[in-house]
């Protein structure tokens, strides 16, 4: 997401809650799993509100960011497994009502259709850490500062305890598979400090760009192999400003390349932050929302199992994503009576009610 790629030379002293025990490291890596998941519902709502035929460029951008956030979630789970933790996703605290805060931060997330308000939220979420910003394990202002604190904790514990003591997890729990679908990123096993730092680098450079304030994330554009890939923050700036970055552009110059077209009329007007309480039980919209929530919580359960010792179940989770998309598409076609359409609520459903 956001952080300099070489934080040991750019990040200031640790914040008030340094990560100095294995238990603290595991706790913060579970927070990383929760953080990565928390970004998914807002990106999905923006993505599903877009007409793919009339807004193909916006669909490409938001869809690619969502896919990379799924990759970041898997890498965060690999990091937690590598240090002897157990990733948890199928739990009520993963799905508090929106609007909500990003875990252990004041950054607010809402469920919105694509548009200026959603873009502003995504830009706040993916904002690069300022040069010299302190590592912050809690109460972070940018996601990069949070990951900087995790990196500091990893380095400190490896120096104090040794890598074998820190990376004590079962290698069989790692989820890997090389190139990650629809992204230029890579899903790989984490087994030592080098691979752990590689996972953090993959996460943060895709969000904010490579070191020294570049707009690029170091990969080739998966949709346009002739172009370098732009980091998440700058992809959203392209949509906001209506122009692509080209080689030589900087954060200060802004994008000076070819135009990017977004058709505001080709966005489904989803009700912001829909709630189950907006509709009576048994009504068509409420029934569709309940069905979506059951499917989404089944997805969380499959992801948890995949990260909890059954890596092959990741394929089943990918299949469930198609059901999630179909149910969300159906909701966003249902008029909600006030000029808006219905939308998914992402409410938690206990296992016994699925």
From TrEMBL:
Chain positions covered by the region annotation Disordered: 245-283
Iminophenyl-pyruvate dimer synthase domain boundaries: 29-240
Gene3D superfamilies: 1.20.1260.10
UniProt-listed InterPro entries: Ferritin-like, VioB/RebD_dom
Coiled coil (residue ranges): none
Name used for this protein in its record: Iminophenyl-pyruvate dimer synthase domain-containing protein
The species this protein was found in: Microbispora hainanensis
